[in-house]
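Notes on consecutive records. When two proteins share a document, each keeps its own sequence and its own token line. Never mix them. Below: protein one.
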Amino acid sequence: MSNLSIVKNEYSHLPDEELLQVAREGIPYLSKHHFKDLQEELAYRHLDDALANSNKAYQSLRNALALSAFDHSTDGIFAAAVWKLIFEWKAQGKSDEAICALLAEQQIHPEYANMLVACIEPQLESSIEQLKTAAFAGYIPTLVGLVTILWVWVFTLAPWYLFIGLLLLVTGSLKLYTVLPKQRKLQALLQQIKKR
């Protein structure tokens, strides 16, 4: 789409219909900077509400920008704790409205609460991917530890190799022990949400 290369000052020269076409068809391909420029122009012309109601891609990107602002404006530990609460409430079967009310009780602004609830599914997917990476980081020392122990056993090398192998095995196993149940729990919750 040729319109995607238009810079901010050229957005203002586009007719409304052409600007809406750029927004409908091009949002997934815009950089964050171009998306903000387009969003500002749509808001200036009062076209953003109509587009937001009809365009799911626009809404999800708008939520993503708000979510990014939330994550950057809060301490990482606080954001992780909030997401943990949201996931627990969702696993308990609470509705989106109930979760928003519970977040408001936790002194989270209603606008952020609504935005967080709208982003539960993508955040779950992101958390699952992070846990997969963490699990991989547990598999590696476990396997290296096992290989080292077998190597020592077969070739009767120095006993400190055995110690290193055991240490790696225990470290990797503990990592897997903590990560895998969380990953399974979040995957089950994601499946439950997708079925609804």
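Protein two starts on the next line and is unrelated to protein one.
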Amino acid sequence: MSDSDYPVLEAEEPTQTYDYSAALYQRTFAGMPAPAHNPTASKEYYRFLFAGVLLVLGCLMPFDGDWSHTGYKSFSGGIFMVIGIGLVWTSWGAIHSGVFRMKWALLAFLPFVWGLLHVIFPGFPTEEADPAALNSWGEVFGVIGDTDNDNRFHAFGHAMQMFGPGKIFVFVGGLLALFGFFAGVFGGAKKLKEQKAAPRRR
């Protein structure tokens, strides 16, 4: 039998394996994934993100009973919208990278104080201007408990619309941001204290 009668065995090419670590490393530079996909992120970052969304949404809503008076059209509303966008931006980045810029949370003090002043001095229509309107917070929340009034929910909604729904969202967003800020400060101080006390217990 000649050499040509034997089958020629070709060298098998080595199988290529998929490098998952390299793919994940490259993906980190492809953009930020959805925040819900990072289970290791601190819960404070999600609180700041939601606060920023409330601020932005509030500035897109009316600040009084006139539907055309949306918040961002005013000077203060424009500032609050920038703060809200900055808070959303830095929170989204913090959820992805773990680095949070605290200045945006501190700036949320401005819309909080602004909203608090409008809650204390609501500026409802006077009785002379609109006798049928609710003229104080006592009347607004009191109408809910009036079971004899079939239109109590409509009256409550109308009163909140006259107050300005955007003001409520801005106030709650600022309050939530400040709550997250102080919770983070006290939580960090407590953790630092525990770390300092840990060697002493050994």
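For the record: The helical segments are 20-27, 43-59, 75-97, 102-107, 109-120, 137-142, 152-163, 165-197.
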